[in-house]
Amino acid sequence: MEFKRVARSGQVPEGIVRRFYAGDYEFAISRLDGKAYATSNYCSHLDCLLSSGKLVQDGIGCSCHGSAFDLATGEPICPPATEPIRTYPVEERGGEIFVGIDPAEPPEGPRRRRLRQA
Q: What are the chain's domains?
């Protein structure tokens, strides 16, 4: 597991979701109850950007169709999504947010993009 710097801690205030990158990896980074979380930036329902959504019910909500996912596990907590999203370990040190990436797991993106590249 490699930890990559994605943002300064101050760029992700409490209750906010933002989009960040580390190389080819794209994340929705959020902060809830003082803790930073990193998830895939794409909803498993129809690939909408989760960084366009809001935090809801201890989870990250999709602005397109109302799906929501648990920040810690990625499991759906509100339909219509039925598949989980990927979550990543986060470390905050020295005022910066680092996300753990497993080099064996390819970057995630919309299914549409993956299908076109295949």
A: 2-117 (2.102.10.10)
| Digit-coded pLDDT (tens) for 33-90 | 999 999 999 999 888 999 999 999 789 999 998 999 999 999 999 999 999 999 999 9
Cβ atoms of 48 and 42 within 8 Å: the answer is yes
Phi-psi region of 103 (alpha: psi -120 to 50; beta: other; left: phi over 0): alpha
Q: Is there a contact between 30 and 18 (Cβ–Cβ < 8 Å)?
A: yes
Task: For residue 52, give the DSSP letter.
Answer: G
Residue among 68, 11, 19, 20 nearest 44 (CA)? 68
